[in-house]
Specification:
single chain, mainly alpha, 2 strands, 63% helix, elongated
């Protein structure tokens, strides 16, 4: 994205540096790997994410035993 006169527009691939282009390709590969390993319910949970890191963070919170997840499961059982 770049801003011209207060209007943000997307850059085309020709305008990206080699490093940015590689990072975008790696992100696409990572998103494909993550989505191919998910079932349908989990896929819908992360389908609106814009990066693989964002997908991973959502899945990590969902499946890892954090205190918030434990508390929510405990309240659901009660």
């Amino acid at each position: 994205m770049h801003v011209v006169d207060g209007v943000s527009t997307t850059k085309c691939f020709d305008e990206l540096t080699d490093l940015k282009n590689k990072k975008m390709q790696y992100d696409c590969v990572a998103k494909n790997i993550i989505t191919s390993a998910l079932n349908l319910d989990e896929f819908f949970r992360v389908s609106q994410c814009s990066s693989a890191k964002e997908m991973w963070d959502i899945l990590e919170v969902t499946h890892e035993e954090t205190t918030n997840v434990k508390r929510a499961r405990k309240h659901a059982l009660i």
